[in-house]
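S1.2 Input.
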Amino acid sequence: MIEPVQLEDFFLNVFSAAVIVVSGAGYAGFYAWGKIARRPGFVISAYASYASLAAAVWVLAETSHFEGFWRVAAGLMLIGYFAAPLAIFRLCTAMHAGEHSEHDRPIANQQQEEEQS
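S1.3 Output.
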């Protein structure tokens, strides 16, 4: 059974939950912007956001007294947060590849097209 959050951990618990939301949005936003703008600094910022997300998930799991299944669920959440923006960006660029000129496409698409021809 999960123990309730202790009063001294309550603020830390709520703060870590807020950091998870903000860091998740930052990771997805910085990653997409970095790929679209072809700026590696944004992609590095995305991975830094993911690192803060992972730390916040760990703090949330500790202060919430997660054990067993809930630790696995937190780990699966981290995997999902990492993979989803990458997959969504690839899906979007594949779907809309024909709508833009060759110079507007992200570098990854141009390299794939060159390899296929």
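S1.4 Remarks. The two ends are 58 Å apart (CA to CA).
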